[in-house]
Amino acid sequence: MIRLNLLPHRELRKAAQTRQFYILTAFTLLAALGGAFAVYQYLVDQVTYQEARNGYYRQENDKLSKQIVEIDKLKEERETLLSRKKVVEDLQVSRSEVVQLLDSLAKLTPEGIMLTSIKQTDTTVDLTGNTISNARIATFMQNIQSSSMLANPTLIQITGGDAGKPSTFSMQIQIKRGAPADAAASAAPKG
């Protein structure tokens, strides 16, 4: 006898394939979700790491800003101290300048001239005095011109005295800064 299989084998195979399709779809979906979660977690970790680095850089930037402010303050203090030092050095140099000026004037002033007033303003010296003749003033100006400490004698005015009385004069001279101390002493007065 012939045996016939009356079981619905096609429907069973189709049901098995459908079940297998749904299982594979579920596994694929789970794998995709797992991969997406892994990528999301990686990106969150990267953002957190970058924010931590940015925070560190902000802190370091704040430290550097404070250091820059401190450096600027130190530069200002340095400039103040350097200007004070310059003033002290200038005072130290000019301290002996008055003595040298008076010594030079005493050596350069010829007989017949008497200085009555000496006024110094920075490098300018105003002289007032009496003289017995204009030739003495010319000699005095030549002596000043040949001096290594003094320069540019400029006669401002001469007022002639009556017969037998001395004439009054006023003049301006310049002090050469940095002139050697003995240079004025070596200038010999003429006349």
From TrEMBL:
<keyword id="KW-0175">Coiled coil</keyword>
<keyword id="KW-0472">Membrane</keyword>
<dbReference type="GO" id="GO:0043683">
    <property type="term" value="P:type IV pilus assembly"/>
</dbReference>
<keyword id="KW-1133">Transmembrane helix</keyword>
<keyword id="KW-0812">Transmembrane</keyword>
<dbReference type="Pfam" id="PF05137">
    <property type="entry name" value="PilN"/>
</dbReference>
<protein>
    <submittedName>
        <fullName>Fimbrial protein</fullName>
    </submittedName>
</protein>
<feature type="transmembrane region" description="Helical">
    <location>
        <begin position="21"/>
        <end position="43"/>
    </location>
</feature>
<dbReference type="GO" id="GO:0043107">
    <property type="term" value="P:type IV pilus-dependent motility"/>
</dbReference>
<dbReference type="InterPro" id="IPR007813">
    <property type="entry name" value="PilN"/>
</dbReference>
<dbReference type="InterPro" id="IPR052534">
    <property type="entry name" value="Extracell_DNA_Util/SecSys_Comp"/>
</dbReference>
<feature type="coiled-coil region">
    <location>
        <begin position="57"/>
        <end position="91"/>
    </location>
</feature>
